[in-house]
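Support request, please re-run this one:
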Amino acid sequence: MSREKQEAELVREALRIGALYMQKRGAGQFEPTDSASEKVRALYRLLVHDQLIQPLAKDQENERNMKHKLALWIERQLPAGHPLKP
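Re-run finished. Output below.
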């Protein structure tokens, strides 16, 4: 699997797990009408606020970099032997 495709799968999994985290934390939930971009930004900001990931530099805050941060975050959360874990 190419690195870009694997990262896209990791981001998809991060959004799924992140939605559960948001609900359990009481921080809200994603609506069906929310775009993927909105979900990425909301989850990134929540994880930064909860100090679960390091924030990006202000000039580096864009959707592509946020997705990369979410992919790295979920990759660390996955158990050994998970299909998405290299």
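The domain at 3-77 is CATH 1.20.120.1930 (Four Helix Bundle (Hemerythrin (Met), subunit A)). The mean pLDDT is 87.
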